[in-house]
Each structure stands twice: as C-alpha cells, then as structure tokens.
Amino acid sequence: MLIDATAGALNEPPVEAALSDPALADDAAGRVDALIQTLLKYSPQWLPLGSRMIRLTVDRP
C-alpha cells in the first residue's frame, strides 16, 4: 500500500497541473493531449513503482 500511495503522490501534482491549465478549460482534445504528454513525460519515474507494485501483488510470500 505504501508503494501505491507513493505512486499516487507522484502522479497527482503533474497531472493536476496539466489538466488545470485555464487555456484548456473548453478544449477536451487539448486536455487529453496534455494528459498524455504528462503521462509520457513522467513515465520513467512511475513505471518502476508500478512494476514493483504488480510484482509484490502477484508474488507468493
């Protein structure tokens, strides 16, 4: 659960910043593009945590 909380804490600020841009308020396609660009930009930080979380979930104790 700690890894999940860490991943959420890392994801939230950049994603919220990208989606709260006032220039994109009425532009759904622009918001989706901003979200995708943000996810791609930060994926090197997030993917190892996600992989570890999956591994810990499926591995036998």
Description:
This protein is mainly α. The chain has one domain (about 1-60). Helices cover about 80% and strands about 0% of the residues. It is built from two helices and no strands. It has helices at about 1-20, 30-60. It is elongated and about 50 Å long.
Give keywords.
61 residues; mainly alpha; 2 helices; 80% helix; 0% strand
H/E element sequence: HH
Radius of gyration: 14 Å
Number of strands: 0
- The averaged pLDDT comes out at 83
Which spans of ≥5 residues are poorly predicted at pLDDT below 50?
Answer: none
Describe the protein's topology:
Elements lengths: L1 H18 L8 H31 L3
Helix pairs in contact: 1-2
In short:
The chain is mainly α. It has helices at residues 2-19, 28-58.
